[in-house]
Amino acid sequence: MKNQELCASYCAEKRGKMSRKEDHAQNHKGEKKYLLFRLWRYLGRYYPLLIAGFFLMLLSSLLALVGPKLSGKAIDAIGIRAGGVDFESVFFYAGWMAVFYVFSAFFSYLLSLLTIHLTRKVIYQMRKDVFEKLARLPVSFFDQYQTGDIISVITYDIDTVNQSLSNDFLQIMQSVITVLFSLAMMLSIAPVMVLIFVVTIPISALLTRFITSRSRPLYRVRSRKLGELNGFVEEMLGGQKTTRAYGREEQVIAAFDLKNEQAVGANTKAEYYGTLAGPSVNFMNNTSLALISVFGSLLYLQGGIGIGDISSFVQYSRKFSGPINETANILGELQSAFAAAERVFRLMDEIPEKPDEESARVLKEVYGEVALKEVSFAYPSGQEILKDFSLHARAGEQIAIVGPTGAGKTTVINLLMRFYDIERGCILLDGEDTYKITRDSLRGAYTMVLQDAWLFHGTIYENLAYGRENITMEEVERAARAAMIYSYIQKLPEGFQTRITDNGVHISKGQRQLLTIARAMLSDAHMLILDEATSNVDTRTEMQIQKAMRSLMAEKTCFVIAHRLSTIRGADQILVIQDGRIAEQGNHKELLQKKGLYYQMYHAQFETQT
Fold this sequence. Notes:
This protein is an alpha/beta fold.
């Protein structure tokens, strides 16, 4: 009765899955609006460095901007006396110019060092945030996206953002100061000539806006195409043996050439439009300089301005228009950074696993009784996999799950581990709804051995002891013996301290699987999941391992997915799944007597083997 109440309560509860997706989509629509704000949050957390950088930039810019004024005075000193040059004044102004420029260069150097330090901090924090978010995302996310595309976000896109973020932010600030100071100096020298910029600057601004509005979508396409290229390369390198076995090298190369051409084409198109801004604005700046020269000459002939003032005005006009030109180039770079930032923040905005309920408790004592009651589930594609699926596993039982490919065997395991959330029904552990239990403690109650054996870069000992802390070498050796891998390890140059690299590519699949089985044997979990865990070992070794595992996993609930039906004859229950439902259920002998689907599958395998 208690289980029925729990089940009814769960079925009535709306977990809000669709509404969360809709909220996410709505938030994503406003992402562009807050893109600069979100980027600023990464820079703003290091405001002491920004303040220091601002003062260094201010000192460097102002010291450099004094130079043109001193240069003009030095030029005027050349003709200040009727009898010759006033060398004393020339050397005086030239000397101060040298002092100001030396200190400006020194502060600029310090600013470069500070910018490098700031960039390192920002890129570290952003990459850390992205990886931490990846660790919290559900399994469904990784089932939908290519690994290479995700890696592209962590590496290329974050690098693209940070290469321009820190440098360009300070550069824009420096440009603003330079433009304002230069404008003030030009107004003090010849206000009439400043009217030239009333025409040229708006034209430059319109050109820049026109070009950047068309280049940003192209940079977005470039980032996506590079992600697709990385995903393809990662996928093909992982299957290079299969490619060669089927003689598909030329087809793979042709497919790569197509992906590469698309990525290069997208990059070329984006860079083409992005780089138009600089030359266009530079053309307008040169036009300004030509007009200044003409009108400056006319004012000089009328006695309204001196040669030194014309020289200073020309230099300030270059400093005034130069930052505008640089800003136009920076805006082109920022389009690339914004496109990359959109991909980074889109990943950060992915919906993490639904948090545990506030009342969820931590599992402490697990007996291992598992029940699925009228569970229905469909993957995001919409295809329903399980339909009103029910099973009951008593504590310590071995439950074998068999059936045709695509029947939903692995889906059952994904639901037990809460890698996916069920649509309807309920799952109970020791009579308690698993959604009332914290996800971490629920998963900690299971140990999994999958068909794809995963090993990480480290020693064999570290790989075997991965699931437990403070484990002794004696325990590791005992598990290795039970998994029939001890003798192989002893033959290695450094035994258990031999390092595994590249997911153990130099170790056979069977040996990798034996290592993961030994790892599972060391777990303290009360329940065991074997998903084709012995598919890569020979039948004799498999039978020996199963015998060892039965003694080590005594009184533990086991769920076994197997295609070799001969290896599950000792299971307490065998569930035959077909079209998302349990077609048959019973032990090996009972199912053979029914002469149904299991009978056909078993004899089909037996005839094939003989």
